[in-house]
Each structure stands twice: as C-alpha cells, then as structure tokens.
Amino acid sequence: MGVNVKDYKPHQPKLPVSRQTEEQLRAIFMESDINKDGVLSKKELKQAFGRLGALIPSFRAYRGLHHADANHDGVVDKDELDDLIKYAYRLGYKVT
Ligand SMILES: [Ca+2]
Ligand SMILES: [Ca+2]
C-alpha cells in the first residue's frame, strides 16, 4: 500500500502549471456566483477577488469587469469568464 515510488514523477504534473492555475481561478469565480444565476455581478467579482487576496477587491472587480464584459451588460457570463480568468492570471493572482 501507499505511494509507488517507482511511478512517482514529480517533474511531470498532469497539467502545465498555467493551465492548473487557470482551472483553479475558474473554480473560484464559479464558486463566487452566489445567487447561482450563471453570471458574475460586480458584487460577486468583488467577493472572488477578495478570496484571491486582492488589496482593493472593489477596484479589481471594476477593472476585471471592464476588461471582460464584452457585451457591456454589467455582468460576466460564461463566454466572458475566460477573459476574466486570463486577466486575473496575467496579474499574478493564483489560488493558495
Ligand atoms: Ca451571480
Ligand atoms: Ca457581459
């Protein structure tokens, strides 16, 4: 029982680090959809960036929304979420 040392390959993660981080960021944003309407409001974005350790979550939510909200309806939907994730990733946010 236990870990099979022979098959343990620490330098070969299943996913590249960037991909893992993006998936973790996606999970955080999805969890922050408090009212489960499938889109992220500014208030929910603020919560998400707060969880990610942003110094000023409300500012980051504003910037993130401005960046990702392609159809200008004031919320980030599933299609826009990818842009938001890339935005957060570029800024160095990661799940700790
Ligand atoms: Ca929502
Ligand atoms: Ca939108």
TrEMBL record:
Domain EF-hand residue range list: 20-55, 66-91
Pfam families, per the entry: EF-hand_5 (PF13202)
Q: PROSITE patterns, alphabetically?
A: EF_HAND_1, EF_HAND_2
Q: Which domain of life is it from?
A: Eukaryota
Entry's Gene Ontology molecular function annotations: calcium ion binding
Cite the SMART domains for this sequence: EFh (SM00054)
Protein name according to UniProt: EF-hand domain-containing protein
Question: From which organism does this entry originate?
Answer: Populus tomentosa
Its ancestry begins with:
Eukaryota, Viridiplantae, Streptophyta, Embryophyta, Tracheophyta
